[in-house]
Amino acid sequence: MTEPTDTAIRVRGLRKSYAGVPAVDGLDLDVRTGEVFALLGPNGAGKTTTVEILEGYRHRDAGDVSVLGHDPQSAGAGWRKRIGIVLQSSGGHDEITVEELVGHFAGYYPGARDPDEVIAAVGLDEKRRTRARHLSGGQRRRLDVALGILGHPALLFLDEPTTGFDPEARREFWALITSLADGGTTIILTTHYLDEAEHLADRLGVITAGRIVALDTPDRLGGRDQDQAIVGWTEDGVPRTARTSEPTALVAELSARLGAEVPALTVTRPTLEDVYLRLIDGAATTASAHPSPSTARSTIQPADPQEPVPS
Ligand SMILES: Nc1ncnc2c1ncn2[C@@H]1O[C@H](COP(=O)(O)OP(=O)(O)OP(=O)(O)O)[C@@H](O)[C@H]1O
């Protein structure tokens, strides 16, 4: 297969079941080279299963998958070196210091980034001589990211990267991700933080029950840009609100009626979280109105333990 330059990931009809219960149920996805793409969805929606198939860590039951022009199921070591992975939880190497670990992993990649620069970039300079087991949860995640970006990956997977970060650490981490994206790295992000997705992602895909139910830019997802605005103000001492698709006209009318400064005026639009929750609710309602055989099966069949990971 020749490698397309504008498409980093192409997925068609992806399916994966555990003990007959679908986790990914006919998923299509295109991720463009150089974009930051966020996968959102409730617990158990199929995000990790999808991402692990893309990473080559899990075998699919059906569908076509191309990642950087190769099928992850059969791609070789050269392909793997072009992929950076930061898993949801990491561990191990507890007795090794940050600089030893980063220096050691740098040896795996021809033309690796300078370990000192990577340690500085993830904000671990002050902890470089600290053993991994003495790092805080957030610092450990930064170390994971350091290991993930050492090899200049063309494609970086970040699975819930800022869980446990304090607000300042999250902002710093976002800046790091933005700088990687500016440098041309394609990034696949799974997160439960809507503000993180909105801040970082060029496009978002929402997965429920193993399918993409919405896919767009953060400001257009689920018709968000078409949503009515909510105008709030106080009149005769009473708080009032109105929904309108023409907030400017309403504000002008209020201003003409109540004076130049309309008391307690606010104009708001649905947040990404509002839209996301609406999409999830809508998908759940549709699923319960039309129960599929797979939904019925899931109540009676236990799931398999995790498959062995191919080397
Ligand atoms: N190894 C496994 N064996 C059996 N069932 C599994 C396995 N991995 C995932 N599942 C099931 O597949 C479904 C999708 O799980 P997955 O981990 O892909 O969801 P997710 O969207 O990543 O969830 P979360 O947000 O909680 O991480 C769930 O119902 C889960 O229980």
Supply database-style keywords:
311 residues; alpha/beta; Rossmann fold; six-stranded mixed sheet; three-stranded antiparallel sheet; 10 helices; 32% helix; globular; disordered C terminus; binds adenosine-5'-triphosphate
Write the layout of secondary structure elements.
Blueprint: E1 7-18, E2 21-32, E3 36-40, H1 47-55, E4 62-67, H2 77-80, E5 83-86, H3 98-106, H4 115-121, H5 137-149, E6 155-159, H6 167-182, E7 186-190, H7 194-200, E8 203-208, E9 211-216, E10 229-235, E11 238-244, H8 247-258, E12 266-268, H9 272-289, H10 293-298
Parallel strand pairs: 3-7, 3-8, 5-6, 6-7
Antiparallel strand pairs: 1-2, 1-4, 8-9, 10-11, 10-12
Helix pairs in contact: 3-4
Characterise this structure.
It is a single chain. The protein is an alpha/beta fold and 311 residues long. It has two domains: 7-218, Rossmann fold; 223-282, no CATH class. It is built from ten helices and twelve strands. It has helices at 47-55, 77-80, 98-106, 115-121, 137-149, 167-182, 194-200, 247-258, 272-289, 293-298; strands spanning 7-18, 21-32, 36-40, 62-67, 83-86, 155-159, 186-190, 203-208, 211-216, 229-235, 238-244, 266-268. The strands form three sheets. The protein has a six-stranded mixed β-sheet with strand order 5-6-7-3-8-9, sandwiched between helices. A three-stranded antiparallel β-sheet has the order 2-1-4. Strand 6 (155-159), helix 6 (167-182) and strand 7 (186-190) form a beta-alpha-beta unit. Helix 3 (98-106) crosses helix 4. The protein is globular, with a radius of gyration of 23 Å. It binds adenosine-5'-triphosphate. Residues 18, 23, 41, 43-49, 303-304, 306 line the site of adenosine-5'-triphosphate.
